[in-house]
């Protein structure tokens, strides 16, 4: 399972690079890689984190940690794909990750055996990595992401930013759709529509 996690993380990083380079289907590849990583953490996190056999407290920690990691990755995904309310899921997941990190550190200090220490150390490492990525994603301004995503068409980026500031009124998104259709028609040498 750990090798599967490493492969999916590498695929997610490569697909993020493809998305940022505006390669065809980069967004879709990033979506698939992040969804696979979310599925790996929850519900399959029980097998990934490998608590001792039987039902003990570490099994519950594995389930909760897997859910928390998956929710944090979902917040990162929504932010980078410019979908929905971009900051709130990341804020909540960062706060939950910090609280979970404190809990894991406390539990590790109370653990006495080597197996438990290794279990909590693995969880703490993953928590810190996901917390760092979520923090970086949270600090990137939404308008900067929009301008970067549409860097080849700055007027479209400004239209999207204005629509987001107006809370997405229908007429605003219709103007953007007409603008996009006209750009496609211009590329095909067809007379554009009037907005």
Distance between the termini: 53 Å
Shape call: elongated
For the CA atoms, what is the radius of gyration? 21 Å
Overall number of structural domains: 2
Q: What does the oligomeric state look like here?
A: single chain
Low-confidence stretches: none
- The mean pLDDT is 85
Determine the number of helices (DSSP H or I, runs of at least 4 residues): 9
Count of distinct strands? 0
Estimate what percentage of residues fall within beta strands. under 5%
Secondary structure: helix percent: over 70%
Largest sheet geometry? none
What class, by secondary structure content? mainly alpha
Helix and strand run: HHHHHHHHH
Explain briefly what this protein structure is:
The chain is an all-alpha fold and 195 residues long. It has helices spanning 2-20, 26-41, 45-49, 57-80, 88-110, 114-139, 142-149, 154-165, 170-187.
């Amino acid at each position: 399972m750990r090798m599967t996690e490493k492969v999916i993380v590498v695929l997610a990083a490569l697909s993020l690079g493809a998305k940022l380079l505006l390669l065809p289907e980069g967004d879709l590849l990033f979506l698939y890689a992040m969804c696979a990583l979310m599925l790996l953490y929850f519900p399959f996190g029980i097998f990934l984190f490998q608590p001792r056999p039987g039902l003990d407290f570490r099994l519950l920690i594995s389930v909760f940690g897997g859910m928390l990691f998956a929710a944090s990755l979902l917040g990162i995904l929504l932010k980078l794909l410019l979908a929905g309310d971009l900051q709130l899921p990341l804020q909540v997941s960062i706060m939950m990750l910090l609280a979970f990190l404190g809990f894991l550190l406390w539990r590790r200090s109370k653990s006495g055996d080597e197996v438990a220490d290794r279990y909590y150390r693995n969880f703490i490492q993953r928590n810190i990595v996901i917390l760092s990525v979520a923090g970086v994603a949270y600090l990137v301004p939404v308008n900067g992401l929009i301008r970067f995503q549409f860097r080849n068409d700055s007027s479209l980026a400004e239209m999207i930013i204005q629509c987001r500031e107006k809370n997405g009124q229908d007429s605003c998104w219709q103007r953007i759709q007409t603008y996009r259709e006209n750009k496609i028609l211009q590329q095909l040498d067809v007379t554009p529509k009037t907005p």
